[in-house]
Design a protein that fits this description.
The chain has 158 residues and is α/β, with parallel strands linked by helices. The chain is 28% helix and 16% strand.
């Protein structure tokens, strides 16, 4: 199995804030590059993005707002390929594995996986990803995923 550990903000959008939406919006050109990556590799997605918090329940006063299937559908409404499979997300804190950094969260997730033949991390922030030794494509958060970024991710997954 090939995995993409996906951050959304700064990868599928450029972090431009849209007042009417009160958020950043997904960019079609970034989605096109992401779709190419999925089609070329057959990789499945594990969310590392803060968007994963939408699927987490923090007790009765903070219920999960959607399922992974709902998030997948939301991404599809913005042009992400129907071949997208979101199989899970990293944990919020991962304290027992040394902290809250994304690289450590990814390492913890990989400990639970079998049959991972290759993986790549797509993120616009470095966090501790490279230090943890993960294959990493860092996007420019002002631009999002480019052709060059997608091609590099494809080569890392092959």
């Amino acid at each position: 199995m090939k995995l993409i550990f996906l951050d959304i903000d700064g990868v599928l959008n450029d972090r431009t804030f849209h007042e009417a939406a009160q958020s950043s919006t997904i960019k079609p050109e970034c989605v096109a590059h992401f779709n190419h990556l999925i089609h070329e590799t057959g990789a499945v997605v594990v969310l590392t993005s803060s968007w994963r918090y939408l699927t987490m329940e923090d007790g009765p006063e903070y219920p999960a707002l959607m399922t992974l299937a709902g998030l997948r559908y939301l991404l599809r409404t913005h042009g992400v390929t129907s071949k997208l499979q979101i199989i899970g997300h990293t944990e919020r804190d991962c304290v027992e594995h040394g902290g809250k950094n994304r690289g450590q969260q990814i390492a913890h997730y990989l400990e639970t996986c079998e049959d991972v033949e290759a993986y790549v991390v797509l993120d616009d922030n470095a966090f501790d990803i490279a230090e943890c030794g993960h294959p990493f494509v860092q996007t420019d958060g002002r631009v999002g995923l480019t052709v060059a970024d997608a091609d590099r991710a494809i080569s890392l997954l092959r």
